[in-house]
Amino acid sequence: RKEVEQDPGPFNVPEGATVAFNCTYSNSASQSFFWYRQDCRKEPKLLMSVYSSGNEDGRFTAQLNRASQYISLLIRDSKLSDSATYLCVVNAASKIIFGSGTRLSIRP
Amino acid sequence: GAGVSQSPRYKVTKRGQDVALRCDPISGHVSLYWYRQALGQGPEFLTYFNYEAQQDKSGLPNDRFSAERPEGSISTLTIQRTEQRDSAMYRCASSLLYESPGSGANVLTFGAGSRLTVL
Fold first, then answer.
1. DSSP 3-state of A81
2. Which of A96, A103, A105 would you mutate first to test chain B, the one with the most B CBs within 10 A?
3. A80, A106 in Cβ contact below 8 A?
4. Could you read off the pLDDT of A28-42 as tens digits, one per residue?
5. DSSP string of A1-64?
6. Local structure of A97: helix, strand or coil
7. Considering only alpha carbons, which residue of chain A is nearest residue B45?
8. For B23-63, how does the pLDDT look when each residue is reduced to its tens digit (9 = 90+)?
9. In terms of C-beta density within 10 A (0-12 exposed, 13-18 middle, 19 or more buried), how is residue B81 classed?
10. What is the rounded distance in angstroms from the CA atom of residue B10 to the CA atom of residue B8?
């Protein structure tokens, strides 16, 4: 079983739609959680950290469920510029593990 | 420096040759990570350092791969006797040392990567 698992997609949604991704992790001792965004042929960049109580950054909302060991990302009112691969990231004892990514494509 | 710098950006080598990939992290960043990324996949953990100490090398595929960071700054990932299956993008990232959740200290900043092609 992979340490971090994501649905690879692709998700193809119209502009303005709401889209959600989930991610599960296997190490119950994991301590911190993130979503990164990666554009084609570029390096991954931090989108947002994920806190236990859930957190929001503009159109983006992240949730963490420690009991079920899953993390989610919700994107509201999606824009063409949101098209990218979204990587779920888990830190367990400073070993930082990435999921395989979920591809999102926003169509006009 | 202002960002994470990796060199070379592109490396083409013949099977059986050794290659060395270099990473210069952000000044003051204590932790340095190496990942390998295949097309369409997420970054695969290889190894990481805190200062000059290699903390975890469990992701190195086999003993042809090694990494060092002798002075706690620049790191080199070395692949000996390269094989075609080693072809990939090799990414380096650095961060402040982990302190506490939410502190932002363990947020990774990546370099542009070194694309290795083994013929």
1. helix
2. A96
3. yes
4. 988 889 999 999 999
5. --SEEE----EEEETT--EEEEEEES-TT--EEEEEEE-TTS--EEEEEE-TT-EEETTEEEEE
6. strand
7. A97
8. 999 998 999 999 999 998 999 999 999 999 999 999 999 99
9. exposed
10. 5
